[in-house]
Design brief:
Two copies of one chain form a homodimer. By secondary structure, chain A is mostly helical. The first copy, chain A, has a single domain, classed as Orthogonal Bundle (Farnesyl Diphosphate Synthase). Chain A contains 15 helices and two strands. A two-stranded antiparallel sheet of chain A has the order 1-2. Chains A and B meet through helix 2, helix 6, helix 7 and helix 8 of A and helix 2, helix 6, helix 7 and helix 8 of B. Chains A, B: One of its GO terms (molecular function) is metal ion binding.
């Protein structure tokens, strides 16, 4: 089964669990809408790719970890789009959750996705119960306070920001959570996979900055120019356009080089280099070539 | 150690974990503000009281469960007070979190408290790892979709409400979560403690309706008359004042009668009857006498 199908099948099971009975109906619709159709599913793909590279001896555990990570990512998108944050009317090329279902439902849907993520890990790891605590440990760290994506969003309210700490929390943390959770789910040492998550997360943040700067809303399915509009730090402002593209390429190279020796390392390197090509906005493809 | 001190000490440890390093500073302050000083801590008291009645053989597990339950309760208060929900300016006699720290920080603080709750269970149950999945199971069910407090809030957006299902989700679910988690943490059968949580949750909902109807803001530390203002169901409207007070007393009696035979059953019955007296608004004490 290809990764995308495997991810969506497991997300479908989680959403079915949370919406059993179909009531209350509005939030049930909003939960499904928040998760389907998905974006690139890059974080759960990364989690499963690491698990597969390490043998994926407990697929229920890796499925649970990948599902939880994507549910938490979707929750963060739903809350980030709220009027008090980015006030984004669109996401993934359709109305954002609060635009489609109202603000109260959007807040509650995000909350429910967070709870569902941890329930999924606890429920689906029955065959490998010793992996529940370490999985929740690395995934909780990746999303919560003081180092996860919630902290990253919270940095935007601070008067003074350390750009590196901010980007680490806002973006890299969940990539690190994805690689290390994939390793734990497969019974491997998460430390060997920390650098891959870190480098890819840094690369993804630079790519996100490039897309915000240089893409069209049609290409990325959400508003552009948000960093400039909200006076947020952006790698293009810091390094210039050419410098930011170079930095992205360096980070992808470091990511590929960090992959430890294991039975699936060659497969994973190809996957990383393939994913990296999707990160560059179309309008910058010639700059990056 | 008395229950209140035990609860606050464990909440303090959890908040210290989430705010390690003190940054980002605004949300760190908001997290502490959301949890301290607390209200009656009735749910974690109930969780620990059940664990103690069953012998409390693994205090780390019962502490973790009680802490997680109170963190989730605090998260729900922070989000319920937001402008798009109750738009409450005060809570526990002080400005609500969004009033004090702004709306974005309030959304993120609630999110962070939810994550912290599940991290706490995973981290603190090292001596009893077999209890992590069942604890997350009952606590996740108590707060998440489709039967937990998030579903309860979500019912308020529906055009047609089954009052019993709504109250079960909004209030009783977390009381059931508290009693059953206390039992699981102590290695006991959670089914024996389901009815206690259910009856107390129903009683608490009736008491909450009475307070919203008959108290002053000074007595309960938050605005009154919210149910009428938001056209929400309320037991006083349904049963009349005398009928609602009688219903409350019946439920407390059922709760006390449901306590199973165990070494701490007498202690627990006294605790329940004592707590019940605090539930009645002062202005109704003569009606309830």
């Amino acid at each position: 089964m290809d990764l995308q199908k495997r991810i969506d099948r497991n997300l479908e099971q989680a959403i079915t669990f949370a919406t059993a009975g179909g009531n209350p109906s509005i939030i049930c619709d909003a939960l499904r809408y928040s998760v389907f159709p998905g974006g690139a599913r890059i974080r759960p793909r990364l989690c499963l790719a690491v698990a597969l590279a390490e043998g994926d001896e407990a697929p229920s555990a890796s499925n649970a970890a990948a599902t939880a990570i994507e549910l938490l990512h979707c929750a963060s998108l739903v809350h980030d789009d709220l009027p008090c944050f980015d006030d984004a009317a669109t996401r993934r090329g359709k109305p954002s959750v609060h635009t489609a279902f109202g603000e109260t439902t959007a807040v509650l849907a995000g909350d429910a996705l967070i709870v569902l993520a941890f329930e999924t890990i606890a429920r689906e790891c029955l065959a490998t119960p010793d992996r529940i605590a370490p999985l929740i440990g690395v995934i909780g760290r990746a999303v919560g306070m003081p180092h996860g994506i919630i902290a990253g969003q919270a940095w935007e309210s601070e008067k003074s920001i350390d750009l590196k700490v901010y980007h680490r929390a806002k973006t890299s943390s969940l990539f690190i959570g994805s690689t290390t959770a994939g390793a734990i789910a497969a019974g491997a040492d998460p430390q060997n996979w920390y650098r891959l998550g870190e480098a890819l997360g840094d690369a993804f943040q630079v790519a996100d900055d490039l897309r915000d700067f240089a893409s069209s809303p049609e290409e990325i399915g959400k508003p552009c120019g948000q960093d400039a509009a909200h006076d947020r730090p952006n790698a293009v402002h810091e390094l210039g356009l050419g410098g930011a593209v170079q930095r992205l390429q360096d980070l992808v190279g470091q990511a590929a080089a960090s992959i430890p020796d294991c039975r699936g390392s060659d497969m994973l390197k190809q996957l990383i280099l393939g994913e990296a090509k999707r990160l560059v906005p179309k309008s910058l493809a010639t700059v990056a070539a």
